[in-house]
Amino acid sequence: MDVTRPSCALLVLLVLYISNLTTCMNTKINFREKEKQILDQILGPGRYDARIRPSGINGTGEGPTLVRVNLYLRSISKIDDYKMEYSVQLTFREQWLDERLKFNNLGGRLKYLTLTEANRVWMPDLFFSNEKEGHFHNIIMPNVYIRIFPNGNVLYSIRISLTLSCPMNLKLYPLDKQTCSLRMASYGWTTDDLVFLWKEGDPVQVVKNLHLPRFTLEKFLTDYCNSKTNTGEYSCLKVDLLFKREFSYYLIQIYIPCCMLVIVSWVSFWLDQGAVPARVSLGVTTLLTMATQSSGINASLPPVSYTKAIDVWTGVCLTFVFGALLEFALVNYASRSDMHRENMKKTRREMEAAASMDAASDLLDTDSNTTFAMKPLMRGGVVDSKMRQCEIHMTPPRKNCCRLWMSKFPTRSKRIDVISRITFPLVFALFNLAYWSTYLFRDEDEEK
């Protein structure tokens, strides 16, 4: 009997253990409750101090905390030439190791914990050094999260919109390329305590359907830009975005209209020199239109101390239009000079005719002797016969093509118009050849 009683007791305990194990296996684990318990355990009062930075490399107290950064560019809304700035919307991510936040992952069932309050854990003091304006997105909820992984890794992600300064070199505008930077640096922690690194493998991502007005994003480069000040050396990261300006917009809005205005100013060369109102109104109208367009172009650009490519173009076009107006002033002066010369020649011929008639009448009145009267005629006949013999032996002077062609236009005013019809288009064509060959076929080193 004494041996039987312990055996029965062991059997009862075995049955109870099996029944309890079966009940636990059939009961589902409440992971949300487990997350709460873990968060209370690692972030509870007196357990975690967000003011203290994580340990250094490999969990040691020595060395700086390493923070790896990556970006996702969602959109670039504008690039302002006048203010020299650009606006960008991006998803900013940071990742670092904080061994104080390690927890049990329940056999791989709990991948990470999620927080929405950044002040619960230690955060790197990163700021955007070339930022002008910026804001977070809170619709519908704040677009931010923190993920804590079982090994202590922390991932911080937030969506922000920034307006950043972008110093531009507009010497080649609008045939230029601009490099705009996005700089991120530590504000208070030196490189002895905090170091920012780019995430290995595709640290910067760009949305596929990125659309920019008047620009194209050609490429981007990541680099480091650590800065030294009186208080120490601070870690810094930068992204250089290379933008190429779309030329088709400026070709349609600026270059073609300017060419048309210059060509219209040449119409005055084909108008009659006596059409003074038509030629003056045409010259003044094209000059004022060209000046208005030039000032409209400069109104959208910042006042800079150097000459831009568009300044060369508009300046030369304005010079051609002004030259066409001055050409009419020269034609008008030459026309009045030609008229004055013709009047002088006409008056001289009339005076010579009157003098010859007076001389002939005097001869007839003073002497009626035919022998005396015939002597001058005989002398004149001898002289005329000698002159004819000389003309036979003299060779006519040769005229070159230009003089022969210009002899078709007897007046100086007409010659000026004809020369302008050829000279103005030819010089403008040579200017276009020099302009486009200079600004289109240039080396990339000259742009910097």
From TrEMBL:
InterPro entries: GABAA/Glycine_rcpt, GluCl_TM, Neur_chan_lig-bd, Neur_chan_lig-bd_sf, Neur_channel, Neuro-gated_channel_TM_sf, Neuro_actylchol_rec, Neurotrans-gated_channel_TM. CDD domains: LGIC_ECD_GluCl (cd18993), LGIC_TM_GluCl (cd19062). Its main location: membrane. The chain crosses the membrane at residues 247-270, 282-301, 313-335, 418-438. One of its GO terms (molecular function) is extracellularly glutamate-gated chloride channel activity. GO terms for cellular component: chloride channel complex; postsynaptic membrane. It comes from the Eukaryota. Residues 254-352 form the Neurotransmitter-gated ion-channel transmembrane domain. Keywords: Cell membrane, Chloride, Chloride channel, Disulfide bond, Ion channel, Ion transport, Ligand-gated ion channel, Membrane, Postsynaptic cell membrane, Receptor, Signal, Synapse, Transmembrane, Transmembrane helix, Transport. It is found in: Postsynaptic cell membrane. Residues 1-24 form the signal peptide. Residues 35-245 form the Neurotransmitter-gated ion-channel ligand-binding domain. Gene3D superfamilies: Neurotransmitter-gated ion-channel ligand-binding domain (2.70.170.10), Neurotransmitter-gated ion-channel transmembrane domain (1.20.58.390). It is a multi-pass membrane protein. PANTHER family: NEUROTRANSMITTER GATED ION CHANNEL. Belongs to the ligand-gated ion channel (TC 1.A.9) family. Glutamate-gated chloride channel (TC 1.A.9.4) subfamily. This is Glutamate-gated chloride channel. The lineage of its organism: Eukaryota, Metazoa, Ecdysozoa, Arthropoda, Hexapoda.
